[in-house]
Amino acid sequence: MEKFGKSQPAGRREDLRFLTGKGQYVDDIAPAGALHAIFLRSMVAHGEITALDLSAAREMPGVHLVLDAAGLEALGVELGMKGARLKNADGTMGAGPERPVLARDRVRHVGEAVAVIVAETVAQAKDAAEAIVLDIDEAPAILAMTPGSNAIHPEAPCNLAYDWEAGNAATTDAAFAAAAHHVSLEVIHNRIIVNAMEPRGAWADWADGRLHFCVNGQGVWNQKGELARMLNLPREAVRVTNPDVGGGFGMKAMTYPEYVVIAAASRALVRPVRWISERTEGMLTDNAGRDLVAQAELAFDADLKITGYRVNLVSNLGAYNSQFAQPIQSELFSKVLTGVYDIQAAHMRAVGVYTNTTPVDAYRGAGRPEAILTLERVVDEAARVLRADPFDLRSRSFIKSFPYKTVVGELIDVGDFDRVLARAKVEGDVAGFAARQAEARVRGKLRGLGLATYIECILGDATETARLTLDADGGATLYVGTQSNGQGHETVYARMVSEQTGIDLDKVRIIQGDSDAIATGGGTGGSRSVTVQGTATRATVQTVLAAFRDFLSDEWQVAGVEFDGLAFGAPGTNLRLTLAEAAEIARNRGRTDLLDTSRKTTLDGRSFPNGAHIAEVEIDPQTGALTLDRYTVVDDFGTLIAPELAVGQVHGGVAQGFGQAVTEVGVYDAQGQLLTASFMDYAMPRADDLPMFHFATEPVPSIMNPLGMKGCGEAGTVGALGAVSNAVRDALAQAGVDRVDMPFTPLRIWTLLEEAGYDAH
Ligand code: SMO
Question: Is 460-602 a CATH 3.30.1360.200 domain?
């Protein structure tokens, strides 16, 4: 383990396939003859369906099936998807309105599916969609993130989904009453449209009383359960597979209305049915990210140690509850509410509001970027207001002894935040910043440095299963319950198995994304995969090796058989067999029990990746254009498995954080029309927007899993939002600007400079 984990570069075995156009994505492998599904979608944000006539569409050429909500129900399909519900602070249950997979009577956001058309070709299905008569009595779009009286759902009369709290209100009030200083800040978290490179898509193939549902998801078992429930099928009658997937980011973890509908259509037609989203369709219907407003307040004692923290959140849920079992901007936010700081007097209140917009759900980091951005913005503001050094101010309040139980009950096992911060200060050449800033000023540029310290918390199921078979060709196959969306899982797991068994790397096969191949799995999300699956894999390999030690003891009639990483041997003998050779003997003896092994393991607790990000931006006051000039990350991911892949995760994560901070925002007009529904209007960050990142680690291995890992998939995004925002705040402070809100587009920055009366000349 050690020798593999620490040093060797990991060329990604999947890259040849991906980079040469040989990836097998869901739309590449649809069964021959599959019919195409197209959805007729609401063109208005809110209203009552007054007419829906499908009859002409049904007569159109090539059309096999046209369904609305009533038609689906007639096929024995459950219309309502499951949403996550939260308890209110007063103990009552929050709202849980039905989300129908095809609109029933009302539409609640632009793009909501109203009917499905299944035809021989996409063009025929689109033509038939034109023949559907749909009248909607339009109601005013509700977009305000304040509870109001014009209800979107009858069961939520004020559009209030929940009013949740965590932490300790009374202790926090007392801390504020006793504090020497208070600093408060409002932080606006702009709405994000995820835009995975590969749009959402799926195909369904009903045959012999069984559904095969292939979808570009983040795991198969949740989908299996949800499809079985909604189609009223026994679980055994549903097989879900995930092929190669081009980016998920939380957005692809969920069941979506289209999936239930095409599965039902395939069952009804006894024909395979396929659907792939178009880009604008995805922008209108993929779960969006973030979209909340946070009011944050910190209390300090006279020594500038944080003594209290209070946050009020108002979250835009969109038209329906999120599906993530723990709502993102409440429970998941609370997991890292107090960040890397020792604050036992903390309280958060989270209000979720319905609007006539696309539902909001998990997006890379799922609650932790929101929590850390809020906290790191207000901590940084405090340093400014209290005239303290932002590094020193943070360090004064760091958690210094472990394990540490946070105010919401999370147990942080290990960490060394001072060591991380000190390293970041060196790696980021903070000492040289003043000179760089002065030099920029000579060029007429405003340069700022921003720091964010962060902690993350791996989420999802702590349990995972691994199944290892020893195959007739001398190789091995590992079946996993996680799902790569491009992260390189195949490479990592194959290396783990090869390293632990001595089997040649190129003879280790990885099977993921097939609910028939192993019984359970938690899928990928919450930075869990390699930590949780790696732990199960390790246990499985240990079980295999132990069984073969016993087998060879019998076979050789010697005691004390050992495995040295490459082969089995016995002391005082020259007996030697590789695992593959031993497996061949087992096979010949009929010992198939030795050739197929599964183990399920559960982590002892969560692990907490953490680190410090330092961003340096330069702003051209003439245009408002921002350049991210330097970017330094020092992370503590515990033990690194395949370091290059972890660094790649950080790069991508930082890019996504930069995107939210600088280029991306989803915008609706007053009628609830999405104005940013194409790449003409929605700006993804590009490679040339970003500098080379400088990355270093200060690992403190987790004690909650035998690998010492902490997870790395979301960490980059969690840290980047605050670092970039604080750098912009710092740069613009020189121009007299005292409040900044993402996204820092040129127009936004230029306007702030104008409003501050800054003379750029
Ligand atoms: S946002 Mo993620 O896939 O937990």
Answer: no
